[in-house]
Every structure is written in C-alpha cells, then in structure tokens.
Amino acid sequence: MNNNLVLVIEDETSILNNICTILQISGYNCIKASNGKEGLEQLATHQPQLILCDVMMPEMDGFEVLKNVRENETTQAIPFCFLSARADVVDIDFGLSLGANGYVTKPFSAKDLLETVKRLMPVA
Length: 124
Hints:
Helix content is 43%, strand content 19%. By secondary structure, the chain is α/β, with parallel strands linked by helices. The radius of gyration is 13 Å and the shape is globular.
C-alpha cells in the first residue's frame, strides 16, 4: 500500500484538479478519476489509503462506487469519503448507511478537506 495515496473521483475537472493540488501541497499523492467507472479501474491498479468521491457523476454515481468498494474483499477496508453538493440530510444519511466514513458538502474549504483527510487517513 502506498503511503499518503488518495484516489479522488470527481467528474468536474477543475474541482478534481483543485482537490489534488491541495492534497499534493500538503504532502499527499493523488490519483485522479473523472467518473465512477474510471475510479474502480484505478482502484484495481493502485492501493490508495483513502478514497474521496463525488456523488453525482456520469457512468456510475458515488453511491454505486461505494457499494462496489465495500463488496470487494481487497478494497472494503479503505476509508471512503463523499464530496458532494448534495447536502440534504437524506443523501448524507444514505451515503453513511452504505458504509462511507465521511461526507463533506461542497463548497468546502481547503482546511475542511485536509482535516477530513487527516481524520480518515490511516497512520503510516
């Protein structure tokens, strides 16, 4: 497992690049995926210590990505956090009920993102 490796699954390129820039400046390595299907493909090749995932995406939404992650024996223990503009309590509760370890609503600050990553990232 690669220390400080975060898989970021986000369909908005500017948001994806911003998240990875914030993470890289703070000493994390970042793998990018622009949709859920691509995220699962990246997960098959890399062993991230954390997955940050948007909810509303083409191809496969974040809820479906999480279901796949939790059903796979090799990935089920990886901490998973949603990053979403869907801030309704119903969406948050649903995401957490599927096994997410966190749910950060957009827009979020770099400080909020990094605090969440530090909280969820296993200590190396």
